[in-house]
Amino acid sequence: MDELIYTLKQQIIEALNLEDMKPEDIDENASLFGEGLGLDSIDALELIVLMEKNYGIKLKDPSQGKEIFKSVAVMADYIAKNRTK
Amino acid sequence: MLKVYINPEIVMLNDKPLAHNEKGAALLTELYRNYIGDYPKFFKMDTLSKLGFVASELLLQAEGGTRFEPREDRAIVFFNRSASLQADTAYQATIQDKENFFPSPAAFVYTLPNIVTGEIAIRNKYFGETSFIVFPEHDSQIMAQQLQLAFLDPMTTSILSGWLDCTDENHFEAELFIIYKSNL
Q: pLDDT digits over B121-146, tens only?
């Protein structure tokens, strides 16, 4: 799981153009939206694309994103349980 | 008149060159880091928006005065011939391959040239008129006519305007200025 979390952080940094950030700078338990990384709605859509592209997970309902993208740790846990790639 | 000129190799502010080391898109990042900073949204922008953002920041810093206070009296009117070609191309790349078809929302949102006027308006809290006019060639007469029309709005007292064109990360040109109604 640690490896998945680290890889996921790298993928998030690249997909969302979080320049000057390294995986070590992201707290996997911090909120991705709002106070934490401060991501916005377009970033949320990019995370949905990231999940399908890298892990073969297609969200049937985009509103599921609210729960899945709570933090990197929550996202990694969901990916570990549902990935097809 | 306050003016700024940026192309992949040259940066001029009020006809004086600004020192830099980089070229192309890297030049825009260098200008951001050296003169602006603390606005991470910059790195999510397409090249046209980065160009407009950096050029407008240099111009507005030179203008001085109070910034980032809400105002409705400043319009933004830009012109080019390439519309949002670089962003369109970048988005096209994400849907070009049927076997690797992943449309990018972050790329898609920049596939209109007027998004850069929005980025500048958000940054500066401008709630006035904004336009982006596309026509085949740089034409000073058409631009002057459009600015005269923009000043017909009684609320508008100044316009951030100019030519803002980008075809790819190594081919772009910004020639921006601020024009004041009181100077007409």
A: 999 999 999 999 999 999 999 999 99
Number of Cβ within 10 Å of residue A56's Cβ equals 12
Supply the pLDDT for residue A34. Answer: 78
- Asked if B177 contacts B157 with a C-beta cutoff of 8 angstroms, the reply is no
Chain segment A33-64, per-residue pLDDT in tens: 877 778 889 999 999 999 999 999 998 887 88
Judged by CB atoms closer than 8 Å, whether chains meet at B109 and A19 is answered as no
Q: What is the pTM (predicted TM-score) of this model?
A: 0.93
For chain B, helix (H) and strand (E) counts, in that order, are: 6, 7
**B3-183: which CATH architecture?**
3-Layer(aba) Sandwich (3.40)
Q: What percent of chain A has pLDDT over 70?
A: 100
Of B175, B172, B177, B162, which is closest to residue B47 (Cα–Cα)? B172
Contacts with B118 from chain A: Cβ below 8 Å: none
The residue extents of the domains of chain B are 3-183
Which secondary-structure segment (H or E) carries B133? Answer: strand B130-134
Nearest to B105 among A20, A46, A53 (CB): A46
